[in-house]
Amino acid sequence: NRFLKCFVLIDFKRGELTHSDAGQMNFYLNYFRENETAEGENPPIGIILCSKKNAVYSRYVLGNLSNKIFASRYKLALPTEKEIDRTLRIERK
């Protein structure tokens, strides 16, 4: 994301979000933070999009970012989970 100066990793999952899904995303975030993020860039953010029988939803995974940092720095430029969910529902129809 050029505006945020960070990688935004997106993972699509079928079914409910599990702890292993969040752990896998944390692994990806740590890898990108250690190996791909350039000097002056912000830490990466992960978004997991989930789909189950009659519902779709999203979750942010922040890696080493605290919710406080996420709220102050990133929420201004990224959609909320509810906005992502709404878009997924519309596109799914």
Word description of this protein:
It holds the Pfam family YhcG_C. Residues 2-86 form the YhcG PDDEXK nuclease domain. This is YhcG PDDEXK nuclease domain-containing protein. InterPro entries: PD-DEXK-like_domain (IPR053148), YhcG_C (IPR009362). The protein is built from 3 helices and 3 strands. The protein is α+β, with helices and mostly antiparallel strands and 93 residues long. The protein has a 3-stranded mixed beta sheet, with helices on both faces. The N and C termini lie far apart (28 Å).
Structural class call reads: alpha+beta
Largest sheet: 3 strands, mixed
Residues in helix, %: 25-40%
User: SSE order in H/E notation?
Assistant: EHEEHH
Output the number of helix runs.
3
Strand-residue proportion: 15-25%
The beta-strand count equals 3
User: How many distinct domains?
Assistant: 1
Give start-end ranges of low-pLDDT stretches.
Answer: none
How many whole angstroms does the radius of gyration measure? Answer: 14 Å
- In whole angstroms, the N-to-C terminal distance is 28 Å
What general form does the structure show? flat
Protein name: YhcG PDDEXK nuclease domain-containing protein
Pfam families: YhcG_C
Organism: Candidatus Desantisbacteria bacterium CG_4_10_14_0_8_um_filter_48_22
InterPro entries: PD-DEXK-like_domain, YhcG_C
Please name the defining characteristics of this protein:
93 residues, YhcG_C, 24% strand, alpha+beta, YhcG PDDEXK nuclease domain-containing protein, 3 helices
